[in-house]
Amino acid sequence: MTMDLTGSPIDRQNILNNPDFIENIQVFLGITGMLYDGEYRFTTAQIADFYEVNDRTIRRYIESSERELIHNGYCILKGQKLKEFKQLFGHIIYSDIDEVPQKDIDVPLSKQETDKQKLNRLKALAVFNFRSFLNIGMLLTESERAKSIRSTILDLVIDSLNQKVGGQTKYINQRDEEYFVAILREPEYRKEFASALSRYLDMGNAKYSIYTDAIYQAIFHENASDYKQILKLEDKENPRETMYAEVLKLIASFEIGIADEMKFKYEELNRKLTPLELNDLIGKFTQHRFWIPQLEDARIKMASRDYGFREVIHERLEKYIQSIPSSDYQKFLGDRSKTLQERIDENIEVFKRLKER
Question: What span, in angstroms and rounded, lies between the C-alpha atoms of 282 and 57?
């Protein structure tokens, strides 16, 4: 799967939401601008000049993708902020003023005015920060320079990810410190569910895999074999070792919740449940309204992270794919992220106590 930067808002946002990458590519490209309010800024004319297109082309993209560009830092300076900006950079933007469109100003400009008079009459000015500068470059199809930068971006994205995770994203979920907590607790919840199946369900040993799949289907619409095929896991690999902490926690909630419901039903009937009765119980359990936000959150996280980090699509969850938030980049690739082995080494005494239980 390859990113489609000109056609996919999610692919663009997945790159623009990665703060470390934005900083690295800015250094790599050597692009600065006018430093204002903690960020480098660029006028419409400067953007057009860099990408070697005319101003009208840039304005057309602003009109068609304004919400996205604003989200990534494009803005129109007015009032006190514009006054400050003109005081700092008026001498630089003189040449841009004649080309500023009506959207950027609310006073018509006369060509007979001096540069200083034009600047004084300027009441609004559109500016881009570096994120929205890149955003425009991802959108522009008319610019060869933009095309070249898109290629550079994709190469750097792959390189930075490979450097961080050694080219192996299959277990990127384990870099989250919450995963470490989840796997410490998971065996106890799993054991409780397996015990309930043994005590309260009248069925052979196939029930353990069948009803594990039933929970997977309820949460993310895939059974274990579907999931392993999508992530290209080997037969010996455990799917749960590749699942995100939030998904593991929701599976655990389902397992202990269904275990309790099975016990209540067993005591009510004074006999073991049939498979049909357990199927009905799981169906009703899943339909409880308090699960709706948790199920939606887990599906969004699984679908979006696997698309962005692992470059795979869960077809049954495709409608849940969103851009990866900046917080997730910090969680899985930032300073607080570590391999599972690093966390085990830091908490070896905890693992020793667990083993002695």
Answer: 56
pLDDT digits (tens, 9 = 90+) for 57-84: 999 999 999 999 999 999 999 999 999 9
Cα three-residue angle 54-57-59, rounded to 5 degrees: 110
pLDDT at 146 over 80: yes
Are 39 and 132 in contact by the 8 Å Cβ rule? The answer is: no
Q: Which residues contact 245 (CB under 8 A, 6 or more apart)?
A: 173, 176, 178, 179, 181, 182
| Mean pLDDT taken over the chain | 88
Distance CA 151, CA 157 (A): 10
**Burial bucket for residue 300 (CB in 10 Å: 0-12, 13-18, 19+):** middle
Q: How many helices (H) and strands (E) does the chain have?
A: 18, 4
Residues 6 or more apart whose CB falls under 8 angstroms from that of 117 comprise none
Quote helix, strand, coil % in the chain, to nearest 5: 70, 5, 25
Instruction: Name the residue among 72, 46, 49, 34 with its Cα closest to residue 323.
Output: 72
Q: Rounded CA gap, 18 and 5, in Å?
A: 15
Q: What is the dihedral of CA 169, 170, 171, 173, to 10 degrees?
A: 80
Q: Which pLDDT tens digit goes with each residue over 214-242?
A: 999 999 999 999 999 999 999 999 999 99
Would you state the structure tokens that stand for residue 218, as one six-digit string?
Answer: 């309820």
Which DSSP state fits 209?
H
> What burial letters (b/e) apply to 310-346, b meaning 16+ CB within 10 Å?
beeebeebeebbbbbeeebbebbbbeebbebeebeee
Q: What does the CA dihedral 125, 130, 132, 135 come to, rounded to 10 degrees?
A: 140
Q: Which residue has the higher pLDDT, 109 or 120?
A: 120
Question: What is the pLDDT averaged over residues 265-283?
Answer: 97
Residues in the chain: 357
Q: Is residue 298 within a helix (H) or strand (E), and if so which, with residue range?
A: helix 292-309
Residue 276: C-alpha distances to residues 77, 193, 202, 279 (Å): 65, 18, 10, 5
Rounded distance, CA 189 to CA 88, Å? 61
